[in-house]
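Reading a protein record of the kind used here takes little practice once its layout is understood. An example of such a record is reproduced below.
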Amino acid sequence: MKLEEILQHYPTKRIKPVDGMAVTSEVWEEAHAYHRQRHGLHVLFSQGSGILAGLEVIASDPPDTSVYILPGVAVDPAGQTIVLPQPVSYDIGHEMDGALYLLLSYGESQPRTDNGSDEEGNPLYVHTEFSIFARTSLPGTSWVELARVRRDSREAVFQNAQNPAYPEANEIDLRYRREIGAPREASLAVAYLGQLAGNNHGRGVSYLAQSLNHTGRFQVSVEDGVSIGPSIITNTLIYLVGQGRFELEAGLMNGLRNYVHRGKGTLFIESMDAAAEESFFSFLKATGMQPEPLPDGHRLLTHPYLFAAPPPGFGNQGTPKLLFGEGVIYSTYNYGLLWQGEQRGRKASREEIRSAMEWGGNIIAYAMERRR
C-alpha cells in the first residue's frame, strides 16, 4: 500500500465519552475500530508488511504436489496481523504450471456466539482467519507472499531448493519473501577434541558472532568448550576442533550422526594436524558421513556472500582441504584463528579477516537453512 493510500485510511477522529451517552453497538464498533486502524497503520509505518516470524515453506517428504507452511505471523499491506498457529499442508495439485505464487491473506469469520446459543444478549465474536492460495499472477487484493515456484509441467512435484540463492525449476523459491521481524537466531557450540594447546577457537567464533549480529540479519550466540552430549544437539551448529589423536565413543558418534541426519543440525569440523585429520575421518567413515570436494556454485559459496572458492584460512602448511557432505563441513583452513585476527607468523590483514567473516556467515546461513 502506497503512502497516499495509507494516509487516506488513517483515522482522524475518535469518540469522546460523556456521561449519559448511549453506547450502542454502532458506537462501540466505531470506538474499537479507531484503535484497530491506528495499531495496524502504526505497524505499517514502523515495519511495513511482510513476515514477522516463521511461515517457512517446505516440500513434502517424499516430494509431491503439496507443500507445508510452518507456524508463524505476518502483517498484510492493510496492517492486519495474520497468525498460523500450527503447520498447514497446501496441495497445489495438477491444475497450474509456469510461475506460481503462494500467498497468504487475512480474513474474519461471521459474528457468532462461542457457546452456540442464540439467546438474546449473548455476546457475538468475530474470529480472525487466514487463507492460503496459489495463483499464476499476483491479485489486486491484500496478501503476503510466502514463496514462488517455476513449475515446468502440471505433473511436476515440488522440492526444497538445493541452492536457495538460485532455485531451479520446481524448487521452492523463498527469495521474494519480505521478512520484517527480529533477526533469526542461531546457537553455536564449540567442542575441542584431542590435545589442543589452548582453546582459542571459541574466541574467534565469538568475534564472528559479533560481526554477524552487527549486520542485523542474525542473532548468534556461542557456547565455548562444551562437552559432546545430549544437550549439545539443540544447537544450530556444532564446531568440532581437533588436534592430535582422539577417539569418540560409539554413543557419542551415534548422537552426532542423529544430530545431522534426524535433527538437521550441521557439523563444522576443523583439523589442526594430520593426527586429528585421521581421527576425524575415522569418525566420519564409521558414521557414513564422508564429505567430498565442495562443488562449484554450491550454496556455501553463494549465499549470502558470493565466493568463487573458499577464502584463504590461517595459513596452515601444505594444501588446505575443504570438504562437504550434507550437514558436514570439513576444513583444515583453521578459520577459528583467522576469525580473531591471527595469521601464521603475522597479523591478518583487514581484507583477510573480512573475507573469513563473510565465509563464516555463509556457513551459519547454511546451518540455519538446514534447521528450517
